[in-house]
Amino acid sequence: MDQRRGLLELLCLVLLGWTLLRAQAEPDGDPDDAHGRVENVEQKMSCPENCSCTEEGAVDCNGASLNEFPQELLSEQTRQLSLQNNQITEVTLEHLSRLLLLETLNLQNNRLTTQGLDDEGFHILEKLSYLYLANNKLTAAPRHLPPSLVSADFAANQLTKIYPNTFGQKPALKSVYLHNNKLTDAGLPENMFNGSDNLEILIMSSNFLRYVPKSLPTALYRLHLKNNKLEKIPAGAFDNLSHLRELYLQNNFLSNDGVDNKTFSRLNSMEYLDLSNNNLTMVPLGLPRNIVLLHLEKNYIQSIAVNALTPIRNLEYLLLHNNHLRSRSIHPAAFQGLKRLHTVHMYNNLLERVPRGLPRRAKTLMLLHNHISEIGRNDLITLYTLTELNLSYNRLTSAKLHREAFRKLRILETLDLSGNKLQALPLGLPKSLRVLKAKDNQMTEVPEGALLGMSSLREIYLTNNHLKLNSIYQGAWQELSALTTLDLSANMLSHVPPDLPESLEFLHLQNNRISSVSASAFLNTPNIKGIFLRFNRLSVHSVSEESFSHLSKLQVLDIGHGNISPNRGRGEEEEDEDLPYDEEEEKHS
Ligand SMILES: *[C@@H]1O[C@H](CO)[C@@H](O)[C@H](O)[C@H]1NC(C)=O
Ligand SMILES: *[C@@H]1O[C@H](CO)[C@@H](O)[C@H](O)[C@H]1NC(C)=O
Ligand SMILES: *[C@@H]1O[C@H](CO)[C@@H](O)[C@H](O)[C@H]1NC(C)=O
Ligand SMILES: *[C@@H]1O[C@H](CO)[C@@H](O)[C@H](O)[C@H]1NC(C)=O
Ligand SMILES: *[C@@H]1O[C@H](CO)[C@@H](O)[C@H](O)[C@H]1NC(C)=O
Ligand SMILES: *[C@@H]1O[C@H](CO)[C@@H](O)[C@H](O)[C@H]1NC(C)=O
């Protein structure tokens, strides 16, 4: 019994946590249900059919199959009225006129149209603080909402019109949700929040705005305008927003002509700025110093000027992927002094070299999918704090990768060199590596000493190269005392490698030319959990049964059908040539 109670309590906690999380969740996502929940205590007093009511004035008709406002039996003492998830089409002055104590009205997800919502209705509700009308069919907002309003949610309607007194003259107003509507600049009043100086949250994403609304209240700390048609930010539009912490401008048409070096310069509290997916060709000048996370990805950025980023002293994350950056158009001092900058994403650009002067405290550097063909001796010399370097899908060749290029990267843990044109596994890789990926190259060789001293290496991936057993130096794997995963699939191996380390747990050898597995192949790998040998040249007779019998931890032994198939008559060589290469492998060019 105790155990069951414990479980129940845990479940309640989980549910509570979930509810809290939902209540705080990004309103752009799913605004449903978070608001005005009421207790489910049945009372004997009058209560509309299909609803539950409490003595404290909460009436819950959530999802009660109502087609009409439940006027009858609704107590004048009602403070919280939950009518969400019904099919109500009309709310009139008469409906509301008795509910003078109403504080929360939740009408989300009904069938209300502007015609069905009495314009004068709300004005008389002098205590109304929370009004939820998301997911209806409103085309215009009510002309007058009461001055007591604290939060209003009109998301996911078809609004084209807001009136001066919809949100104006509301000194208590803190949050307004208007995302997913059809608002244009012409549909907004001159000074939408005139007399509503305490507004903190304004969400107007996914509308048709071309301009930032004028005269926004100075208390704002969250402003979302993503998915609009912004081309230009009018001069001074953000000048008074010294409390703004979070500004979403992604998915608009902002170009460098639409912003200038003063547009953002007064936003002294701003920590999070998202300008991704716009039409910028350079990093804008005048960004404020307290930004921590800066999204500039998916623009057409070609260059970074010397003083564009350096004033942002608190910058930690810089996202510049999917742009048109070339190394030579990034000023060598562009990152100077950015002591907190630890994560830089520059993948999918046009970089030919690792840019000079990258931030000295960088921990994660994503340079994949560029055109880097060369790494010189000193290209990485300042990056001694780097723990993750991703250089996959560039144009590196062994000849142009300097042997000493990695010498300063003493704490690097993850290195990805996949998808280059390396002919051999590079020498001089950091001994600190835990994960090394070099799949999809043209490697014919693991040269003597390439893996020497890598006692932390846990995973190595060399899939899809041209490695043969005798082109891997002897003892290469044996010294890797922490190695758990060795992936040599899609190479040209003729046998299971002889010198596997004791720590090994997963061995991928599929798609090779292995024709037999000897009884002693796995004698030194007692910890192995998975062996993958599919698509080789094995036949029933060439695999010794004793090979695996002592492996007490083995969970997966995948020999596949390969040539051990019922219709072996076709001849082994022939069938082998038809075998697909690792199909799950994404093919990059
Ligand atoms: C109560 O719910 C039932 C279906 O659950 C519905 O048929 C009935 O019309 C509802 N009553 C009112 C007053 O809407
Ligand atoms: C703002 O409200 C004041 C009254 O508080 C009024 O005098 C003024 O005309 C309003 N301004 C706009 C632009 O609506
Ligand atoms: C900023 O505040 C000043 C002084 O209150 C005011 O004159 C100006 O119009 C405001 N600008 C904006 C864009 O709201
Ligand atoms: C902003 O740009 C103007 C002209 O483009 C320039 O005169 C001014 O010095 C710049 N201000 C700052 C703070 O960079
Ligand atoms: C933004 O860039 C796209 C693609 O280059 C272009 O088609 C569009 O005209 C640009 N829009 C503006 C407003 O500059
Ligand atoms: C490098 O980046 C690619 C793409 O995000 C990812 O698939 C790969 O796992 C990364 N490499 C490492 C070692 O994390």
From TrEMBL:
GO terms for cellular component: extracellular space. It holds the Pfam family LRR_8. InterPro entries: Leu-rich_rpt, Leu-rich_rpt_typical-subtyp, LRR_dom_sf, SLRP. Residues 562-589 are annotated as: Disordered. SUPFAM superfamilies: L domain-like, RNI-like. Keywords: Leucine-rich repeat, Repeat, Signal. Residues 572-589 have a biased composition (Acidic residues). The keyword Methyltransferase does not apply. Residues 1-25 form the signal peptide. This is Podocan. It comes from Phoxinus phoxinus.
